[in-house]
Structures are given as structure tokens and as C-alpha cells.
Amino acid sequence: MKRMNNEYTEYTVPKPEFTPEMKATHTILVPMMLPIHFEMLCEVLRQEGYKVELLRTNHRQIVDEGLKSVHNDTCYPALLVIGQMMDALKSGKYDLNKVALLITQTGGGCRASNYLSLLRKALANAGLSHVPVISINFTGLEENSGFKISLRALVKCAFALTYGDMIMWVRNQVRPYERHPGETQRVVEKWTRELTGQFRSPRFFFVKRNYRRILRDFAAIEQVKREPIRVGIVGEIYMKYAALGNNSLEDFLVSQGAEPVVSGVSDFMLYCLRNGVFDNRLYGTNPRGKLIWRVAGGYLLSRQKQMIAAIKEHGAFRAPTAFTELEKLVEGYIGTGAKMGEGWLLTSEMLELIHSGVNNIVCTQPFGCLPNHIVAKGMIRKIKEHHPQANIVAVDYDPGASRINQENRIKLMLAIAHQQAEEEKSGPTPSPAAPQEERVMAG
Amino acid sequence: MHYKIGIDIGSTTLKCVVLDESDNILYKSYERHMSRVRQLTLEKFVELEELLRGNELKVSITGSAGLGVSDKSGLPFVQEVFATSQAAKVYYPQTDVVIELGGEDAKILFLQGTPEERMNSTCAGGTGSFIDQMAALLAVDVGELDRLSLRHTCLYPIASRCGVFAKTDIQPLINQGAQKEDLAASIFQAVVDQTIAGLAQGRPIVGNVLFLGGPLAFLQGLRQRFVETLKLDERSAIFTPLAQYFVALGAAIYAGGLPQSFCYGDLIAAMERALKAPSESRGLPPLFESDAEYEAFQKRHQSAKVDSVDLAEYCGGVYIGIDAGSTTTKLAVIDERDNLLYSHYCRNNGNPLEVVLQELGTIYFLGKDRIKVLGSAVTGYGEELMLGAFDVDEGVVETVAHYTAARHFNPDVSFIIDIGGQDMKCFHIKDGAIDSILLNEACSSGCGSFIETFANSMGYPIEEFARLGLFAKAPVDLGTRCTVFMNSSVKQAQKDGAPVEDISAGLSISVVKNALYKVIRVHSADELGENIVVQGGTFLNDSVLRSFEKELGHDVVRPQIAGLMGAYGAALIAKERSKGQSTISTREELEQFTHTSVPVTCKRCTNHCRLTINTFPGGRKFISGNKCERPVTGEKGADLPNLYQFKYGLLTSLPKFPNKRGTMGIPLALNMYENLPFWNTFFGRLGFEVVVSDSSTRKLYSSGQHTIPSDTVCFPAKVTHGHIQNLIGKGVDSIFYPCMSYNFDEGMSDNCYNCPVVAYYPEVIFANMSVPPNIRFLYPYISLNDRDFFVKRITGVLREYWPDIGKRAVADAATAAYDALEAHHNAIREEGLRAIQYAKDHRRKTIILSGRPYHIDPLINHGIDNLIASLGFVILSEDSVPALPEYHRVNVLNQWTYHARMYNAARQCVGMPDTEMVQLVSFGCGLDAITTDEVRELLRHGGKLYTQIKIDEINNLGAVKIRLRSLQAAMNGRAEESRLPTGKA
Hints:
Chain B: Its cofactor is [4Fe-4S] cluster. By secondary structure, chain A is α/β, with parallel strands linked by helices. Chain A is built from 17 helices and 8 strands.
């Protein structure tokens, strides 16, 4: 049989739209990243009339589904996010004709902008190409007639972000020291519930009152005082926050007696918006970015400032550093034009930690993360040059990377952290004992 | 009296040290734990009862497998690197740097200045177990490897990125007949290079260096390589007889400083508690639920067999097939009716010639004068060597040999997977011809020899190990990345207390998953068709076979001669193509057989290939290690259009401009392969003498290697460090290397980004390399997309250093530069059209070698373009293919300029007769995880073959050659009627 060389069937992966009718019939599945924030954000969407379900699954099959569904050299977050959704679709829990998926798309030069396409391919390969996928993006990459976020919802989202950031921030300062295990988590849950409820009324608007009450509740948790070993977590955004991705890094650190320091997600949003300004400055791109920064960025900044002010005023907890400070820190390290992935923000987060006295840092990244070759691993040497006390461990996450390897490296970082803390307390260590006879065998 | 106990449990061994109050060593031991970590720890305490009982005891546990023991027993843990530094400070206070190599990990500790302690990243596993594997590859024990290395005369360059990569480089050298002495030393050198490049990352290793860990304690040769490379002397290189106990020693010292103390009974109780703790490994379902299931399985697979006839009684014509694989050599002798007369399967122990020589002798001996050899064929890595050595009639492409054999068992075969010791070959069969071919690469390297080495390291013969796995109750999940990652997953399983049978089954499942999801990229069994034939020695392992069927959910055919299929296929082809008389060496000729091999360096081009020249009786020569045909024929390959050479030629013959303002250095790396014509003219017109870095060479690369901060970044980025070093060496006044988020919008994509690495690599250079202060290093953020804005922006940048540069002059220079770049692009497109016309006129087949601009660098592409040319193809590049008249959307977000060209080229390829596409992919290129699937689908839907070649530091083109020849065979198979023999006679 002879083959025709120019027979050509166009290769197209279907892109079913999420239509206005589906709003009433379809359940939208949302992959998990940050429990506190995402619970609230989902609630905001529900109030807009969507049926939304946040995927709280956390089992090994998610990774297996991911491995089957996407190219194995794709970054780990894509593998997990897509794996989590495919796993949910195959679980039998949902009517496959009445379900839609939601995924974020940053639109930058990193692979992450392609998660959406990879998800669609995975769906097509699994015979599920009729399932609509909704893209959440800020760059107008894709639109769905049935999915619109109102300004009201956007405002609520901005509030949800800062509320979430604050709870996460304060929780980490209390949890390692709580006298009664689990108490901090109960307060977190209480407030997540409370705030979720508040979004149904205008009550969420009264931030100052809420902040005061949140801080009061956390401060009331009984603590056992001891010398803190603080460990900052920075990294690729999914790896930094998602317990599914980083093998519950925060829990691990707490179990080792350390206090995790994790900055909020508002910084990342602000960073995305801010890059519009830099792009215009460096490359002469559309000046619209400047306007968006002034409006949206300005609003988010004011929310963040208010949150910081509340923590400072309350006085029991350390306050996070404002975004406006972050961009100054990277001067002399990396240009603010580096905007793919977490870009200059990641470098500045490491520097911010060191400046605020947190020398111990876990830098999380998916194995083979491209931007992190530059902004994380690429900058560590320079950071250490200027801050010799910096104790940074870069940890790669991957379906094949074993937990033991990761934990062993983190333990080394912790051992050094403890030693540094000791030295600070007791001054220089006494000179070592003279070697005894049996032991010296040089050359 | 109190004692201090340190226990170090690593990936393969348990070390124990007991110290008294004044740190005298009362007891020390070192033994393999064979995964029985908790049990053995308890036994150790019991063994020491007499010494310990009645004393106050301080104890700490360390090591990767110790973590779990500590968790479960509640005994204190200390991180092993930290423990090492404790012991070093006490026992060798003069130490500046500690280098420790363990079974799986490599560590470096800087004790002076700013103390720093580092471990290898997961993706850099060239340590003890790597040396074990290499020794196994050379069929010597580690001690012998060491002795051999001391007698070396030369060193081969071996990829030092990770053990798996190194193996890929070493294997072919073995097959080419390189001296074991040299290989042994080269293996050690690779370990040294990797430790220095991967761990020190630019921090100089100076002063007194303390060497620790098993390999450094035992291996003189490895020590020698370290001492020489680091330029140490007798005094500054510290070796200690305590090396293998050192970490345990550190743990004991650490224990001394802890507040808790125990009595003997406490320790026993703690360990008994740990033993009782359930195994934590999340088990997979067992391979067989019942004995009946196993019997049915066995019965089903017994039916796929060939009849055999005893060679010692047979009389008539015979056909010999040889499969000279990378680690094993297989022979099959068949009669006129395809019955198997004789077969042989063995490890070649690094000497395939010897095996074939002996086996041919045996065949002649058994067959006496009753048999007449009518034909012979050879396939596999050693094909050319055997052709030269024994005058075999035919050389056969591996894939064709395997397909021929598989077809014998099932004429309708739709998919073949062959898992051998070192590699995996999978191919689809469509319309009776080989369609797409998939080979594994370094990062999906889990194959048969891996299971075998693993079994051996745990102290089991492979057969026993495989059998254990069959009835495992809860196989452990070991992941699917490369063997290095699997090694570390096994460590995890050991820590969790998994028994050996679960590990065995887990390994089989991992090898299978690796094949299915990483190499084949299968989504469902349907894609492989109904008739699947599995072969290769690894499938003789029933655990692997069973895992494969289970994972796929589909029964497969495994011929009983699964390990011999290549040889059997070769024999079938020998029969098909027989001319009635074979040229293979006769019995007499075999008796006279002699062989010498000499290593030389080829000086015909800048590649400086390390060649091995083999000489055989009658003056027949076989040259290996070459990347092109020049050392063989003395000439360049056929003079066919080759866009890679053309493009490289353009870049190396750019116009020169007079020096009025000083020199401007530009590294010929990454996106400069695209933009150099622009910057050359731009700076030339402004009065700079543009100095471009030299062509990439290994030497240039290694000059910057120690400044690479991330060992998993792609090779093209790593080479950049060398180019900058080269410019520094040239003493240029300034270096210009801009950051560019955006590339040109060429109208065939949705956005026009550069990849993150290309975009921002200058930042890495600046942060990690020491550019002398007298050299201005300019790395501004620039975009060339908007001409007016560019002029404004670059004027501002340049004026900081050269205030007298006027905007007018910049604008003029920019205009000329844009023209120069356009002329450059036009020249490439015109040459592309000429090549297409040439192929048409001369009826040549064409390959679109699709990569990124920097893939034309001969160090990066390893001369693959020449290799393709030597097979008689016209070569186009992705950017020389004309743009489609209108923009077609693809199914991914098409947002990178360079990648958009590949989609365009794939689409164009579909419409071009006698043209196929080969995609070059650099290791670590994250973007290609997205592009490869899309390009593959675009081509497949257009009825084209998809071939992907992954490239990195690895120098050896053996696998690439097989792949390209397979592609050629597939193209020929499509063009004419298949030339393959037709099934059973």
C-alpha cells in the first residue's frame, strides 16, 4: 500500500466554551493551592451564581494521573494541577456532562501559561474533550461567554487575598509554639468560615474590626515560649504554597521545631501588575499596563498597607514587609525586567527574609523550572556573597524525587540554623580538642 | 563511665562507632545492611551488649536511612553532613575543605572562612554506586577497576553531569575497544569533575582537603584523580584510615553533647518499638493475586516459541545472526526453515569481539563439515566493529532486525517494545513498515541492567531477585524518573522498612511505567494496537512482563527467545539476502585472528574527536569515536546542501569594522546565534571593534564550568559561561550581552517571548562569574521589536558609558543593523529554497533539522548535521523553511518566537514530498516538553514520521545514529514496497 504524502488531517484539540446556560447546570472544579485563600475565593464565585467545588484531594493517584496525562518533563505543578482534575473527573463523583474546570493562566513567558492547553490535550486524550475549561487570566488570553467576573466580585477577591494573607502570616507565628496541638488550626478554620460567611453581606468590608478580632484570637492562643528557628519558604508559587506539591513543607518544618515564614500571595499579584509598568519602561510596550497598575495595583497596595498597619498596631506579631519595599531590595542583584515565573520577586523575597533576620531559607521549585535557574539558583551565590550568614537550601520537587532526599537536605539546613543560633547566643565555639594518636593519619 | 555511640545508616551500609569519655574508639564496624536497617540496628545493640550494659549511653543516629530508624525509635538524629563537620573539627582541625563521597550522595564542606555545607542535587548522582555500576559494565570488581586506573595512559572526556549520562558516554567507548585502563581512570575523572563542578559551584577548593567516604577510602585511583585535579600535595591531601567510619564518628561526638542519656535496656526497647512499627510504604497492588493466576500467565507465554534443531546433528546451509548490543552479545544460527540451530546470549564484559570470536569457533566446531554458512548479518551498537572484524555479510539497522523477528511471531504485529540491558526501543508498525521509533534517553534510563545492578548491590542474583518480586504483597512505588531518582526512592522505601520483595516488584513496575509513560507516552492501550510483541532480555523477567501487561491492561506476546530477537531477526535477514555464499571469516581465518586498538586524537577539525583505531587481520581497519566521516575517508561528507553549515558559515564571516572606540566582546551563545549580525553591524557602525568569542569547544566549555549555578539548566546555557570566560581572556574592553524578554514578532505566534533561560541568562552570568572591573559588562534589558523605542532605549544605555554617542549616530547604526539582520534572514531563506530545489533536482531526501538558533553550534549539536548529511540527506533548518502564507493556530499557547518556527516548519514538512523532520531537543529544555508533543501531533496527523533527538553534553552519537538509520529505513520502507522478508517461510 502506498501512502499519500500530503494527506493531512488538521490536528485540533476541541475548546468547548463555557456558555451562560452552563452557569446553572455545571459544577466548576477548582484545583487547590492555598486552602485559606481558595475557600474564600470559591465562596466569592458561588455568590456570583456559579456552582463551584474546590478539590481538596491529596492522594498518590493524583500524581499517577498527572504522569499519564501530561508530558513527564512538564513542570511538576502542571502535572499535579492537571492530575488533580483528571483524578476528580475519573472518580465517578461528577456527572461528566455537567462539569467544567477552572485554571489560571498568567500569560508570561513561562511554561505556566500553557497549563490550559496541556489540560485540554489531556482531556482530549481521555475522551473528555467536551468538558469546558475556563481560563482565569489578566491578559485577555481567552474568554468564555458564560464566565464573567463582576467588579464587585473582583473587589471581594482583593479582600479575600489580604484576609488570607494575614491569617496565613499570623498562623505561622503561633502554630509552632501552641501549647495545645491543633488549637491554631481551629482558629484558622473558625476565621475562614466566619469570613466566608461575611462575604454574603457587606460585613467583610469592615476590615479594621475583622483584623483586630483575628489578631486577638490568634494572640489568645496559649503558647510555650522558646527560641524560634525561623525558616522562610520562597519559590515557584505552586511549590511554595501547595502542600500537595511540597510534601506539606510547612507541617514538616513545624514538626522539626521551626517556624515557617511564608509571605502572602498579594505580593505575587502586585508583582504581576507591576511588570506592566516595567515592560513599558524597558521595551516600550502598551502603556495600558501603567494604568492598570495605578488602578488595580494601587487598590491592592492599599489593602496590603492596611493589613500591615493593623498587625503593627496590635503589636503581638511581626508584620510583613510591604510590596513597595521589595522592588528596592533587588537593586544590584537582578533587574526588575526579569519577569517570567516569579522573576525578580523571588530574589527579593530571599533578600527580604535576610533583611528581616530570617537567614534560613528553603527555596522550593519544580525540578527543571526554567525561571528558577535564573532568579533562584542563579542568585544564591550573589546573595551569599553579600550575606554570608544566609543559609539557603534549594529543593527540587518532582514526581520521582523522594521525600527522604528533600527532608535530608532540609535537615542539613536546619542543623546549620541551630548551630548559628547557638553561636549567636554563646559567642565563638571553643577550639577543638587536640587530635589523639590513633586518629591522625595525614597523607 | 559514659559511652558515646554513633550509628550511620546510609543507602547500602551500616556503620557503628563507640567512643569512651575521652573519645577513644572502643568499637567500630562497617557492614552492608541489605535493606534490613531496623533489624540490623537492633542486632548491633545486642552484639554490643557486653560492652554497653551497665554504662550510661549517649547515642545519635545519622544517614539517609537512619532518618527512619530515628523517627520510629525516638533515638536522636543528626544530619550526616553536620555530623561529618563535627568529626572533622575534632580529628583534623587543620582541614579547610571536606570532600565526602558516599554510596548515593556527594558532599562538600567548607570549614574555613564562611562555613558552607553542600550536598549534591538529586540530579547529580555520580558517586559510589555509580562506580559500582561502571565496574560491572567493565566486568571487573571495584578493586580491579582501581588497579586498572593506575595504569592509564589517556583520559577520555566523559559527561560529568550525572552517572547515567556518564554511562552513556562510557558504554560506546567500551564497545569501540578502548583500553580498560583508560576507561577506569576516565570514570574516576568524571566523578572528580562532577564533584568539583556540581558541588563547589565556583567556590575554589584550596588548602587542606580531607577526603572521606567509602569510595575514597578504598580507591587509590580515585584519590589520585582528585589530588591531581585539585593540585594538592602529600600534606594538603588528607586521607584517613577512619574514612568509612567518619560520619558515625561524628554522630558519636554529636551524641556526647546531647543532654539525653540512655541505659542499655532503653536502646533495646527503642529498637524493638521501631521494629514493630508498620512499614509505611504505600504499596501497589501485587502482581499476582493467586497461584492460579500465575500458572495461567506462565502457560499463555509458553506458546510463543521457535522450534529448535540440534546444530551438532544438523546438516545443510545455515545463516548466522549477530546482535552486538551495548552490554550483551547475542548470536542465533538458523536453518532454511527458520528453526533455531544454536543460540548464545551473554554479557560481553566489555569485550564483544572476544565473545563473537569464541562463539563463531563453537559454531564451526559443532557444525563440523556438515554445515555451510550461506549468509550472515550483524546488528546493534557493535555492528561496524563486527563488520570490520569478521567480514560479516550484512549490517542491519537494529529496529529492522527486531521488526523482522517480531513479524515471525505475529505477522500482524502493531507495536514492538524491546527493553534490553541499557536501552529501550519501541516502534509502531503501520502498513507493514516501521512507523515512529521511540528510544529512551538518559533521563528515562530505567532498564534491565539497572534492576540487575540493584539486585547485586543488595546481594541477590538477578533471577532470585526477580522471583521474589513475583509474589510481593505490596510493591513499593518508586516513581518513574531516571535511575538516580529511583535509587533515592529505594532509599525512601528502605527507610520506611519495605522488604526486599516489595522493592523488587516495585523496580519492575517502575521500569514498565518509565517505558509506557516516559518513552512511549501512551495515553491508552488502544494506541498501541491489538498485536503487541515485547522482547529484549529484560522481558525474560516475569515480574517485568507481568507489570507491563497489568499496567497496559492488555495481553502481549513474549517470544521465548525474547533476549535473542535482534540476533534471530538478523539471521532471518541474512537468509533473505543470502547470495549463496557468505563472506564471514572461515574457521581457519578465525584461528589467525588478531586485533589491536590504538587511541588517537583526530586533528581534522575543532571537534578533536578521541578516536579508537582497531586493526584486524588483512589490514582491515575500524575507526570509532568519530563524529563525521573525515577520519575514515579523509574527506568531508557529500557536498549536499546543509543549512546548519551554511548558517554557521554566515556567522563566522561577518563584516569587520575598524576600532575607533575600543573593543566590544559578544559571546557567541544562546540568542546571539540569531542576533549577532544585528549587534555586529550596530556596534561596528558606532565605532567599536566587535570581538566575537571563539567557536565552542570542550575546553572553552570547561573553562567556565565551575561557575554554573544550576546543574539542570540546558547545555547551551552552560556553554555561555565558557564564552564569557573566553572574552575575558581576550581582554576586551566591554562585553555586551543583553537580557531580552521579547523576541521579534514574526507573525506566526500569539506572543513573541524568548524562553526564560535565553531571556535572562545574562543575569546568571553577572551574578556568578567574576568579570574583572576593567571590563564593562553591559546586560541591559532590550527589545528589538519596536525600532524607535529601541533607539531611544539603547542610546540611554550607551550614554552611561560613552556620553558622546549621539542619538543620530545610534539611529543610523540601528538602521544598518536592522538591514543586516534582514539580509541575514533572507540569505538563510534563499539558501533554504535552493536546498529544496536541489533535493528535487537530484532526487534527494530531505531532513528538516528543527531546533533553536543555537543548535547550529557544533559543540551543542555534536555534528549531528554532518551525520545526517553522511546518510545522504539534504538538511534544512527550521528557519530556512518558508513561512506559511497565513498564520495557523496550534493547540498550545504559541508564545515563543523560536518555537513558532518549529510549528511552522512541521506544518510545511507535511506538504513537502520526501521530507521528514527531526527535532533537536536539549536536555532540560522545559519548553520542549510542550513543543515536542505538539510537533509530534502536527506531523503525525499529516502522515509524517516524528523523530526526536535529545542532546546534551553526551558526546556519543551511537544512539543517534541508530535512530537516524532507523528513520532512513522507515522512509525507504514507505517510499518503495517493504524490503523486509515476509514472516514464516
